[in-house]
Design a protein that fits this description.
The chain has 563 residues and is α/β, with parallel strands linked by helices. It has 18 helices and 7 strands. The chain folds into 2 domains: 168 residues, no CATH class; 290 residues, 3-Layer(aba) Sandwich (Rossmann fold). It has a 7-stranded parallel beta sheet with strand order 1-3-2-4-5-7-6, sandwiched between helices.
Length: 563
């Protein structure tokens, strides 16, 4: 029989899609360029940032920045290959040997050397510079595990995109199929994160926070004084105040306690707080706050302070108490809760914060402005962190409106989104640094981190006065998306004394370093990070001192607050 004639093989038509690989994307070994990027990212993650970090936070920073470097390196390698540059086998082998030797040595060296950097950062904020060696030794293995998980997730998404492209290529041209698959995957991931994971996380956190809001801190009991919300005479039940509201009311000083400090007769101060459960809307809660102020006789006191709270409704007692002691209890404080969310997610509720600040300040000021000018209390506003943002939003026309409508303001630990602070910082006098700006020669607004900052510049400071307490190394103040692509002005010379001279800006990397610093912002001593200690006492003495108040009394009250 004649032998069968072998038919010539036809070359497959180009599809425009990547040819199938014998090794699936998820199991494929990383490319040389991707690992080089990961190693460089790992090195950069150890460079000094704003605050010292615990070992587990450093491991997270290492994993994230290494993953960023991995992605950048992989992209560069892809571009180079698409340009037709392919080194021969000998050169590739040398490259891998160099990477293994230099990369491995560099990883060990930088991990060890970073102990010195961390020691310098800890020393700068008056912490013990010594680091527990076995904890720091865990940074590398934990970072490797976290990095591996991130790469695995990224490769799974890449594999999913390829499969979508192949399915889509059945109905549309290959190039359009690839682009459509990439867009669809981005939409799916963003939708999953925002629509499912993020909302689910917020729902879980909000649910847990709402349960916590029902609790009462040890030592906090329902008051009997009619000057306090939640008392038997109050329009608001004790249970409706929320956990932070009950803390605020329960820690109010008494007339007897104030007298022991001042040595003079005192009054029981007024404290009004409206919880989230008190009424259905912000407007209704603000109106309830005004009615409580009227019931307690707050508008006949010498000073009335409207305090915008943080996300959970917390009020810092070191902001609340000084006016009460300075005025011998002849004072009234009012605050209102707008959320259950803890502070680490409260930035997501900035819309609620600003609405709450506007609602409360506008309602109180409307009632206050109806009083005869010579019979009104001093009207002051205050807020810390997100509360400072909420306070500023009540004055959309800026410093001029703030100075016209209130008798003073204390804004502590401002966020980068604070509109008035941004205007003041951008319009600062020539030569003043962004971390301690001087605006219009300090005529109305001044920034301080230490007590002697109140006197800078040595020009006239006429009332009404606005004080920002702002630490140079506070990540809450400096964190913003622009760090991804632009060098921040707070790294210019001269720098704030609490910002390391060794800190450098790196695209992408610095953003994640400062993001990690947010988690450590409250883990440092007073005067650094997002901690301000008793500095509000000195600030209130500058903003609204009662007649005859002296610097010696400020020092004594400051010491009392510290104790």
């Amino acid at each position: 029989m004649p032998e069968p004639v072998e038919q010539p093989r036809r070359r497959p038509e180009p599809s425009g899609l990547p040819a199938p690989s014998r090794r699936p994307v998820v199991r494929r070994l990383p490319s040389w360029s991707a690992l080089v990027g990961a190693v460089i990212g790992y090195w950069l993650s150890f460079t000094p940032s704003l605050l010292p970090r615990p070992w587990w936070l450093q491991a997270a920073a290492c994993a994230i920045t290494a993953a960023i470097g991995y992605a950048v390196g992989a992209l560069i390698g892809l571009i180079v290959r698409r340009c037709g540059v392919r080194p021969d086998e000998r050169l590739r082998r040398i490259g891998w040997l160099v990477l293994a030797a230099a990369g491995g040595t560099g990883i060990v060296f930088v991990t060890a050397w970073s102990v010195r950097w961390q020691g310098d950062l800890r020393r700068a904020v008056h912490l013990d510079p010594r680091i527990v060696w076995w904890q720091w030794a865990l940074v590398l293995p934990l970072a490797v595990v976290l990095f591996g998980l991130l790469v695995l997730v990224a490769r799974a998404l890449r594999l999913g995109t390829r499969q979508l492209a192949r399915l889509t290529a059945r109905v549309v041209p290959p190039r359009q199929a690839t682009a459509a698959a990439a867009v669809l995957m981005v939409v799916l991931v963003v939708g999953l994160v925002q629509g499912f994971l993020l909302r689910g996380l917020l729902a879980v956190v909000g649910g847990a926070a709402s349960v916590t809001d029902l609790s009462t801190s040890p030592g906090i009991v329902r008051p009997e004084l009619p000057t306090l919300s939640g008392s038997p005479a109050s329009l608001e039940p004790w249970d409706s105040l929320g956990s932070k509201g009950r803390d605020f009311i329960g820690q109010a000083p008494t007339a007897a306690g104030i007298s022991r400090f001042t040595g003079r007769p005192a009054k029981d101060p007024v404290r009004v707080y409206v919880g989230l459960r008190s009424a259905g809307t912000l407007h209704e809660r603000a109106e309830l706050a005004v009615r409580e102020l009227e019931r307690t006789g707050a508008f006949s006191r010498r000073v009335l302070v409207v305090i915008s709270t943080t996300g959970t409704g917390w009020v810092n007692e070191r902001i609340a108490k000084p006016p009460e002691y300075m005025y011998g209890g002849d004072s009234a404080l009012v605050a209102m809760q707008y959320s259950y969310l803890p502070s680490w997610v409260s930035f997501l509720a900035e819309g609620e914060a600003s609405d709450a600040g506007v609602a409360l300040i506008d309602a109180v000021r409307a009632r206050w402005s109806q009083l005869p000018a010579d019979a009104r209390p001093r009207l002051l506003v205050a807020g810390e962190s997100l509360g400072s943002y909420a306070t500023e939003r009540a004055f959309p026309d800026g410093v001029a409106q703030l100075a016209q409508q209130v008798d003073g303001a204390l804004l502590v630990g401002p966020t980068p989104d604070n509109p008035i602070r941004r205007t003041v910082t951008d319009g600062r006098d020539r030569g003043s640094p962004i971390w301690r700006p001087v605006y219009q020669d300090g005529r109305t607004v001044r920034f301080a981190q230490w007590p002697d900052d109140f006197g800078k510049p040595p020009a006239e400071w006429a009332p009404p006065r606005v004080v920002y307490l702002q630490n140079g190394g506070d990540p809450v103040t400096w964190w913003e998306p622009g760090l991804l692509w632009a060098r921040p002005a707070w790294l210019d010379r001269p720098r704030s004394p609490d910002v390391s001279d060794a800190m450098r800006w790196y695209p992408l990397v610095t953003f994640w370093q400062v993001t990690c610093d947010l988690a450590a912002a409250d883990s440092v001593p007073d005067g650094y990070g997002h901690r301000f200690g008793t500095l509000p006492t000195g600030a209130w003495a500058q903003i609204a001192p009662p007649e005859g108040w002296t610097a010696a009394e400020t020092e004594r009250l400051d010491a009392f607050q510290r104790a």
